[in-house]
Amino acid sequence: MATIERESGDPLPYEGVWRFTAPAVDASVPQARHAVRDLLVRQGVPVADDVVQGLLLIVSELVTNAVRHAALLSPTLAVEVAVGAEWVRVSVEDNHPYRPTALETDHARTGGRGLLLVREITREAGGACEVEHTATGGKVIWAALPLKPAGLPPVTSPPKAPSAPGPPGGPRPGRS
């Protein structure tokens, strides 16, 4: 694969932010996964296959979490995909105020392992994930992964917080 040289400040052709909404119903899980996969292909994002597989599993888990636990207070959810020069971030937002602590899950529980899985996939890929409150009282759960799989030399350190279209760490567009 050829590397793209970029001039100072010029975004790469695949960089950007895409957001779509879906009803908080079971059918939205595979639809969101397919929409994210199709977006990465359509934009020509140079992401490794194992990173794509991890990312799609994360999308499935986050949308499932919103459908199962937030649908009563949040009949709609939003999925956002942000792609930078060296990373890709997915987030799922709902309007339910409960902020799960499952990123630090109780291993004795038999259910609720989806967010633990998100955390582990993210950690193995060399990325970051977090749960944050929104200005409207809901929450957004996000995971950012490097475009290159873990084990290859990183170009930058893993992101600490979401942002777009620049690298993770700054303010999010469309937020107050």
Structural features, described:
The chain has 3 helices and 5 strands, in the order E-H-H-E-E-H-E-E. The model is unreliable at 1-6 and 154-176 (pLDDT under 50). With 176 residues, the chain is of the alpha+beta class.
Q: Estimate the helix proportion, in percent.
A: 25-40%
Residue stretches low in confidence (pLDDT < 50, at least 5 long) are 1-6, 154-176
Q: Numbering strands along the chain, what is their spatial order in the largest sheet?
A: 1-2-3-5-4
DSSP strand (E) fraction? 15-25%
Q: Roughly what is the average pLDDT, rounded to an integer? A: 81
Features:
176 residues, alpha+beta, five-stranded antiparallel β-sheet, 5 strands, 28% helix, disordered C terminus
List the helices and strands and how they pair.
Layout: E1 16-23, H1 28-43, H2 49-70, E2 76-83, E3 87-94, H3 114-125, E4 128-133, E5 139-146
Antiparallel strand pairs: 1-2, 2-3, 3-5, 4-5
Helix pairs in contact: 1-2, 2-3
Summarize the structure.
This protein has 176 residues and is of the alpha+beta class. It contains three helices and five strands, in the order E-H-H-E-E-H-E-E. Strand 4 (128-133) and strand 5 form a beta hairpin.
